[in-house]
């Protein structure tokens, strides 16, 4: 209730101030996306250059020069970019398909259990 009251007070104050109305209109009509964008311009973790990787802590150890280690470090950098995307959607369409299929599978399982409980057990 208090939250709703504060929102209404803020809305009244915003409409009384013409400068705020103008700034809100400009912001809502602008073509700039509201989410944070990748500051480096990389499209995926594969676009990260090797020069962006941290320096190896032990130059005598050959594991820091392997492709697997470089791939792991690139993914670590990619997942830490604060662009507003949840971690479970960072890989793109593949992750979206996986997460949504888990949701559909869970719904189907619960619907099946509901059906079994009320048709077989209730008799």
How would you describe this protein?
The protein is mainly α and 123 residues long. The chain has a domain at 1-32. The protein has helices at residues 2-16, 18-29, 67-79, 93-121.
State Rg: 25 Å
Shape: flat
Instruction: Specify the helix fraction band.
Output: 55-70%
Overall pLDDT: 80
Question: Beta-strand level of the residues, as a percent range?
Answer: under 5%
Largest sheet: none
SSE arrangement, N to C: HHHH
Give the strand tally.
0
Explain briefly what this protein structure is.
The protein is 56% helix and 0% strand. It has 123 residues and is mainly α.
Essential attributes:
123 residues; mainly alpha; 56% helix
Strand and helix map with partners:
Elements: H1 2-16, H2 18-29, H3 67-79, H4 93-121
Family: Belongs to the cytochrome c oxidase VIIa family.
Keywords: Membrane, Mitochondrion, Mitochondrion inner membrane, Transmembrane, Transmembrane helix
GO cellular component, one term: respiratory chain complex IV
